[in-house]
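Researcher: Quick one. two chains, 939 residues in total.
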Amino acid sequence: MSVLDKNIEVSDQNFDYNKEDALNALKKEFGQQYSSSKSVREQHTDTTTIHTSKLPDGVVFAENEGDVKRTIEICNQYKCPIIPFGVGSSLEGHVNALYGGVSIDLNNMNKILNVSPEDSFAVVQPGVTREQLNTYLRDTGLFFPIDPGANASLGGMSATNASGTNAVRYGTMKDNVISLRVVMPNGEIVKTANKAKKSAAGYDLTRLMVGSEGTLGIITEITLKLYGIPEVIAGGRVTFSSIRDATEAVIMVIQSGIPVARIELLDEEQVKACNAYSKLDLPEEPLLLLEFHGSESSVKEQSELFSEIATDFGGSNFEWTSNNEQRNKLWKARHDAYYATKSSKPDLEYIATDVCVPISRLSECIMETQEDLKKYNLYGHIVGHVGDGNFHVQLMVNPKDKNEINVLNTFLDRLSKRAINMDGTCTGEHGIGQGKKQYLIDELGSSVNFMKRIKSTLDPNNIMNPGKVF
Amino acid sequence: MKKNNDWLDHSYDTNNIKSCITKIKEQFGQQFSDSQSIREQHTHTMTIHKSELPDGVLFADTKDDVAKAVKICNQYGCPIIPFAVGSSFEGHLNAPFGGLSIDINNMNKIIEVYHEDLSVVVQPGVTREDLNTHLRDTGLFFPIDPGANASLGGMASTRASGTNAVRYGTMKDNVISIEAVMANGEIIKTSNRAKKSSAGYDLTRLMVGSEGTLGIITEITLKLHGIPEKIAGGRVSFPNVKDAADAVIMTIQSGIPVARIELLDKNQVKSCNNYSKLDLPEEPMLLVEFHGSESSVKEQSELFGEIASDNSGKDYIWTADNDERNKLWKARHDAYWANMSFRPGTEMYATDVCVPISKLSECIVETIEDLEKNNIVGPLAGHAGDGNFHVSLMIDTNKKEELSKLDPFLDRLSERAIRMEGTCTGEHGIGQGKRKYMYKELGNTVDFMKDIKKAFDPNLIMNPGKLFL
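Model:
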């Protein structure tokens, strides 16, 4: 029996909204800020997944919160789907217009509104990208750490609860968003919290909006935590003879309380691809890459402690450096991993997925996944934020080969279920989007009923990014 | 603006509540009590709010007990108030509409410690000291320390924190997953045990801090941390609050991973001098704690010393010896007891606010002026690294004119914090006492909170009369 309560409906209905009236109203309201040209619409769908791209019927380029509010009000009136769009770097079909409707492009809302060095926070508009923010902060001695790889927009990163390589030290978006301004589905504008570092006042709507994937409202302003740029950054690299040895070293590092800033695992196949692409000659064995932040003496201590742990678990060829150029060389394999995978099969398409498990189950989960890749004859590399128990499989597939896509779906299905069975999650950082809706139910059962209750009470017309999450 | 006040008209039918209590009694036998003394023990006495007794108390042994009781209460529209140790400060456990108090103290099992994952699964009645005693031999600990030996269920429900939140965060940062009985009796699990997840809405963080108004927590998965190799402590005085607060700001900015950084105002120091027989300079004081390796705590302590002296700090001392550190920190450890005896014959009313740290000294200075101007005794101590501070108001409740000064003072304090872009409560919660500030602080956002409340608990049975006016 399904755990889902049929009485709580977030409809996957066909939106038979009055397209012509809705789009005319938007066109009239926004003039030059509105476009329905094919090429613009094509730019506003997701193309990084195996899901078929579906175009929105029109695109509004919002300049400010007032534009967002008016767009939502018009859409709510005509029950027209609305899909928020930043840079389009999400990986689970979040920005696809499954039921048509309007894509609202937030890239022009890219102002950094306020930086308070004393409070270590910044207030930004959602279209600001993380690199833009860090460039802006360069002279302040502060930085925003969360780094999902892509130069994503901070609105999109909030909406998907993004994280990345340094979450092990600095947390995820949920840990780094202090407050949000959001236009809700009825057009009301809310502020989820004031700017104090902590609060015990009422429900945590900040964390409810973070990770809600545009299904509850559109983020128009974000207050983010900043951190002091570390005095010294050291990097290290070490090879292990097995995934198990590598992950056991990771567990020991975390337990010892070494405040490691990044700890990344590359599996044998990933290392092979990186050797070929970046012209390296790393041993083709599981590789750990580390980064330490702190004072000169602290990073030295951390590196040395790590080296002892690595040796205890059979690590070999440990190298570390606190010189920036040397560190970039050590880390080259990781920096180029995406390109290495992509260029190793130039005629195929790149698909990325992620799961996250309790760290005690990590090696088991990775090894079973490697066996699956072999069993199904799929081409894929594994790279992971292993301090969090989180890893990615980067697959190269032929989307035109129906058989291969079927096999891929079986593989992805088994991967999510494997993670869930190990008390983990079907996604540590990419989000549910279109691709993982069934696994959300597998993972959290009747909790999903309560998520749907929130969705249907806050967005009764289901206009906000429909067809995602549920 | 949408006004979401229709539930003010909601009334709880006393006959239905009576029938419900009878039914609960039938179903639970010895686990139920409606004796006056038991009911009195289950209301809140740490506030100026009058005790409001429940009609009966259920001692739940399992989550199935909780689910069964909640289903019955939901059927009759009978209020439910979850109860653990009763150490909350804002009247969270009062029963303004009567109903059933569900005592979860017997649900006190530590279900499993996952050493490798640095996590633990506990029942809600486990207290933080129980947990840390249990963990003693593992090299791990649970850091969050609100002062009282609170239950972990209560701490999760009020989003508690305390002195070391500056390093380890609050309950919202340390709860991985929650199992809860919702108002319809369904048991949900908000998340699996992975360290991070992007799967669906963050119901974990929604339940943390919801003060028993959305469901009853029956199991909690918590993050654990490695016991630091070394703990160092320090103490330093400043000529004024501004200098002390500036030193705090600079410490945080420099990225010193300070584990505790507590500010005591001169009245608090005076109170501590009296009680603990110390002769500290009666000036604002900072107490600090550093966690790390031998060399790291040394480095942190010395760096902090430089920052303190740059900001006119005097008489800085630090130590990595445990006994010495306890001596240095004695003033802070005894602050609660010191205040209780600071003005004999009075009752303590504790309150807290939290502001962006750049506003901390301004907020504290204005608050001290306010206390002086109105002749109210209220030593002030703060978790300054978070911009959070407490005022311990010592009130002679027999004197009407003294009592009458309390509410206006609290109003001004909360409004001051809100004006400075802060919150009317950093860690105590809203409960009954701060409901009136919610709209001031968050405006129409509160309407959306009420929407969620109604979507989860349409009969408004879960801890009614808290959070929202």
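Chain B touches chain A through 96 residues (CB under 8 Å).
Researcher: Thanks, that's what I needed.
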